[in-house]
Structures are given as C-alpha cells and as structure tokens.
Amino acid sequence: MDLGLTERVALVTASSRGLGLACAEALAGEGAHVAVTGRSADRVHMVANQIREITGVEVLGLPGDITDPDEPARVVEATAAHFGRLDVLVANAGGPPAARALEVTDEQVNEAVNANLLTTIRLIRAAIPHLAASDQARICAITSSSVLQPIPMLALSNLARVGLWGWAKTAAQDLLPQGITLNLACPGLHATDRVKNLGMSGPAGDPGDFGRAVAFLCSSSASFITGTTMLIDGGSTLGL
Amino acid sequence: MVCNRPATSVPTALDAAHRGDPARAVELLLSDAASYITGVTVPVDGGWFAT
Fold first, then answer.
1. Predicted pLDDT at A53
2. B46 vs A224: CB contact, 8 Å cut-off?
3. Looking at the predicted complex, does its ipTM rise above 0.90?
4. Which of A119, A148, A149, A176 is deepest in the core (most CB within 10 A)?
C-alpha cells in the first residue's frame, strides 16, 4: 500500500520511546522525513540516528519537554525551518501517573490537562499555518481507548483525553476549509514500557502495528477521514 | 465497518478527488497493520458525522 508519504515531512512529539517512537519509525519507513522529540537529549539523538540508519530518511532530533507551554511552537517552527515544510503532525505526550478518581489533587488535574490536552492544542495551533500550505496536511493526536471506556486506575488520563476528544472533534470541522484532516488514534494496551510500569497486563498490541495505523491516518488514502476516533485496542473496548 | 457518505451530501471542500470513495480507506483495515484493530467503525465521510 503506497501511503503517499515519501518526501513528506512529519513532526512526531514524545517520540523517543513507546508509541510515539513507533509512529516516527512507521512514517520514516514510508519515506517521510521526521522530527522526533523527547526529554532526554541523549535518547532523542540516539533514536534519530537509529531511524536515519534504518530508513535512510532525514531525521531531526529536538530534545525538550513538550509539556512546557513554549515548547510546541518551538518544535513546530524548528521542524518547518529545517525541512522547509510540514505535512504531518503526530501529537503525542507522555501519560499522567495512575490515580483513582477520588484521589486526584488539583495540582495533578492541572498537570494532566496541561500534558494531555493543552499540549496538543498548542501543537496544532502552531502547526496550522505550515500544514495549510501542504496538499496532504494531516494531524493525528495520540490519546487512549479510555476516551470511550474509562480505565478506573487512570482517572487523570481519562479526564484529560476526553477533553481533547471534544476539542478535536470541534476543531476538525474548523479545519475542513483548509483541507487539514484531524483524527485521534486511541490505543488500548500495547507492549510498551509505560504499560509495564503501570503494572497492566493482558493481551497487548504490537507498537509497530500501531505506528503503521497512524501512518495510514496520515496517508494520501486517508484524505476523506477526519474527526474520527480510531480504536486500536484489539477489540477490548466494549461500548458502541 | 467502514461508513461512507454519498459525495453529494458533503458540504465542504475536503479533498474532492477522493469524495465518496472508501476503497482506499479499506486498505488499512485489510492490511497486516490492522492486527489489533477489530470491532471498530471508521467513518470515511470527510467529517460529515457530527457525533
């Protein structure tokens, strides 16, 4: 399947490990040049070198904390300046810590909303002027299957990601005139370090497959898919 | 399940070249990358659905 991503430019945030890394690898595997971000400079540059060596595409490493309010605009501008264009934004950020709903503090709620709602809004806001110049403008935000079926021990994640869902569904309509698609990829359990650290167990998906599903949402074939939430959860979400 | 909408019902200008053609979208659901995607509905409707 030709995804039409060759020579496109993609920014994938929080992509030095886990599902973000899988997305960057998948896009690079399809021929897109990618910018990767993460908190650890050593890790970001190592990952950038690995992707470059394996795929042959150009990879830009941008170390930094994407949840810092100034960081989304910085990485968007750095990517566009380096490559001269931006076609794809995969907005990802690390998930908040585990917490039951009645245990969360105000500070924890604010941090979760900042990381998993506001960060994505800031990224999209900054990226729109560049994406509007592309004939294959794609935004995919990584959320969670918890937007459709809350996970009891992840109350902070649940609340922030549902907020993002509501915002993104609205924003997708506003982006139609510019030809920019905006979709949410909603992973269930995947074999990542975060899942292991949270002590979650059960059948888990392959991060590589998740990355390829996101690459599809960013493809030329997905030109008519926008405003959707795509569950990638092995059928574990039971709601309609 | 892939849900598409007739092209004439779409009121916007989203990529007219592919309106109403779900065939390319189906490619993902039939690919090996879809090993962990099941039981889902994927609207291929240019954002037509309001829900």
1. 98
2. yes
3. no
4. A119
